[in-house]
Amino acid sequence: MTSALDRRTDYRITFVVLLLGVASFSLLQSMVNPVLPTIARELETDQATATWVLTAYLLSASVFTPIIGRVGDKVGKEKMLVFALSALAVGSLVAALAPSIGVLIAARAVQGIGGGVLPLTFGIIRDEFPREKVAGAVGVSGALLAVGGGIGLVLAGPLVDALSYHWLFWLPMIITVLAAVAAAVLVPESPERTPGRINVGSALLLSAWLVALLLGVSQGHSWGWGSVEVVALFVAAAVLLPVWVLAEARSADPLVDMKMMRIPTVWTVNLVALLFGMGMYSMFAFLPAFLQVPEAAGYGFGASVTESGLLLLPQTVATFLAGLLSGRLAGRYGSKPLLFVGAALTALGTLGLVLAHDQVWQVVVETTILGFAFGLAFAAMSNLVVEAVPQSQTGVASGMNANIRTVGGAIGSAVLATVVTSGARPDGIPVEAGYTHGFAVLVGTATLAAIVALFVPVVRARTHVVPGPQAEAEAELAAAR
């Protein structure tokens, strides 16, 4: 007789647990951004040091997202999901109690390990859900990352005003602990495993070039783009990246299979992810700042942290609705058209910000369009990658896609920071042209993303033979396993 513990948990219960994990991680991506000055003041440090609260999280998440996704493919996604959520909870606890900026920065690095939640979520959905439910579930989970980013901007101000900045970490910790316990008890272990050992050398090389690239990009504006430190970091990244690719290509047990990365659908969607990440994460960083510019500057609305978050609430709602609709739309039209529409709407909404930003209603309408676009594109990217790779590669493939979005976001934010502040006034407030030129750059990246989306090949059904390079790459992957 089969015991209750042997029965598979209903996929809908599993889905709720997974969404809790994704929500807690995505909240921590954005809630800290608007209140960095408050944190710097409370912990008696300068703004440059306080920015490491963001940088440490970015570097850690970029390193651990693909690694944990790959380890999950090999040793079990449920085990690694509990591990990632536990790290997120521990990091949040330490951050909430941090007595100094150094401890807070270290805690944020621990939180970054939780980046593995997203690829593990996609892998578990593919393993456990009925085939017809996979696209919708992946779409909602992917869009929730953008939704959480928006909710974080909305909640940051009220939480700090009503309680303290410590609750920016207490709240995600509570959610994460609940998700970790529920995952350990309710989420079944994945039946799909990839044989072979964990390639530690590849993981170290991946970490090295990612840290070099992202540290150079994130600190270039403050250290100086021509400084010895930044140039050395970029040179190191340029050397280590091809070394990593070559090592992975020759490895019998690669961390990231280069044959998988060469699948046409995968590399084209990853290129879209890079371009799209440049726009979306830059908007999360700079729209609140734009809304908070004092009206005396001749533009902006003088909004408080709380008010700027509320003005962006329609954007978050639109992202959530797009995520809910994405599964049905993908089933009817396919994920590729959704990706194109999402990128095109991003270009349209950003162009609106360039041309018309004098009235509050204009900015609200434009950011709402952006929110809907983010939801569609995130869902479509996730689905296209998941559908394009063998089931045993789901974690690492979606992890690399998420990672490439993060790299794009770091590059976009650095470029936008340089453009926006290039003509700052004596009081340090950027001139209006800085913002309009910065937004114009993002119109270009979103337009390029839409163009690339037109050339993304589509995997119709993995149970059928699809002729061409896509099928050849998949056959090579199958043979390698």
Describe this structure in words.
By secondary structure, the protein is an all-alpha fold. The chain has two domains: 8-189 and 255-480, MFS general substrate transporter like domains (Growth Hormone, Chain: A), CATH 1.20.1250; 199-247. Helices cover 77% and strands 0% of the residues. It has 20 helices and no strands. It has helices spanning 11-30, 36-42, 47-50, 52-75, 77-97, 101-111, 117-128, 131-162, 167-186, 200-223, 228-250, 258-261, 264-291, 305-311, 313-333, 335-355, 360-388, 394-420, 432-453, 469-480. Helix 7 (117-128) packs antiparallel against helix 18 (394-420), helix 10 (200-223) runs parallel beside helix 18 and helix 15 runs antiparallel to helix 16 (335-355). It starts with 10 loop residues before the first helix and ends with a helix. The model is unreliable at 1-6 and 461-481 (pLDDT under 50). It is found in: Cell membrane. Keywords: Cell membrane, Membrane, Transmembrane, Transmembrane helix, Transport.
